[in-house]
Amino acid sequence: MSEREDGPRLSPGAFAGVRLHIVTGKGGTGKTTVAAALALALAAGGGRVLLVEVEGRQGVASLLGLPPLSAEERPVASAPGGGRVLALAADAEAALLEYLEMFYGIRRAGQALTRLGAVDFATSIAPGLRDVLLTGKATEAVGRREGGRRRGEGPFHYDAVVMDAPPTGRIGRFLNVTSEVAGLARVGPVRGHADKVTEALRSERTLVHFVSLLEEMPAQETRDGVAEIAALGLNPGAVVVNMARPPLLPEADLSSAAEGRLDREELAAGLEAAGLEDPAGLAASLAGEVDAHARRVLMERRIRSELEELGRPLLDLPLVADGVDLAALEGLARHLADQGVRR
């Protein structure tokens, strides 16, 4: 993990009472990996957590080495202390059928609409409807009670829900469901459903977390995304700096390289003493690598400082060099737990 000791950190109990964790980030930052690791961390100690994928990419199944997920919730991983993570791939068509059955008892009619292609047609001409159905699936799971009891009665079925959401470039529109359906339905059950989803998304029990790398473009999208989410009345959560790499050289050597003071003759002498061939040429190549490393470290520190200015807690996850599988996810979950991530 990063060597950084200062800057905003996760306060004790920061996630206490948070029921829905929405994870977004620029493509390529490891958003799905972070969402899965977060779900495992929240399930530790006997928790039950639902991981919801909404983009249809089957990224969670791929990470865990499982067959493609369906719209049905199923166990996918165990967490320390008897915890469980369940997952589903939210699907607009399945969510609409469930919605029709739940509120109108007309699932058969919905199935007929599906066969006629009406669902695809409706969600194609009104993308906001698709987003309402997908976000509604997650918010329904958030409020679900044990044994199907009424709202406000009995314990929650899930201790937390984690949503692997769309990238930062689309997250505002995806979560701004009331605005998206305003032109489609100003009154009636669809608008009512959208209003309930919006209420849940804007609740203090919902946080939108951002995954970034210490690179210019992901960091800029993170800054823009935090501002957009706050402007929509939603609650920005933590910024997760993913694939963090520690400096490979002592601070003094990094400073020397960054300032162009690396003694190449001394480096060549050392290589010659080690009996290596062409010590001068090898020293020049190594010096170039050290210079590039020093520049990268300085750039990453500057970007981290800019992310700290957002005032959001910063969490660090290390680069996993050998690929991400369940064992690696469990390790990342421990890193999050060590930084205070818990229910």
Write up what this structure looks like:
With 343 residues, the protein is α/β, with parallel strands linked by helices. It has a single domain (20-248, 308-338), classed as P-loop containing nucleotide triphosphate hydrolases (Rossmann fold), CATH 3.40.50. The chain has helices spanning 31-43, 59-64, 92-104, 107-115, 118-125, 127-143, 168-175, 177-181, 189-201, 216-231, 251-258, 264-273, 279-308, 326-338, and strands at residues 20-25, 48-53, 74-79, 83-89, 160-164, 206-212, 236-244, 314-318. An eight-stranded mixed beta sheet has the order 3-4-2-5-1-6-7-8, sandwiched between helices. Helix 3 (92-104) runs antiparallel to helix 4 and helix 11 packs across helix 13 (279-308). The two termini are 22 Å apart. 39% of the residues are buried.
Which bin fits the share of residues in helices?
Answer: 40-55%
* Relevant CATH superfamily: P-loop containing nucleotide triphosphate hydrolases
What's the alpha carbon Rg, rounded to whole Å? 24 Å
Shape: elongated
Query: What is the CATH first-level class name?
Result: Alpha Beta
Structural class: alpha/beta
| Element pattern in H and E | EHEHEEHHHHEHHHEHEHHHEH
> Could you describe the largest sheet, including whether it forms a barrel?
8 strands, mixed
How large a portion of the residues is in β-strands, by DSSP E?
Answer: 5-15%
Counted by DSSP, the helix tally is 14
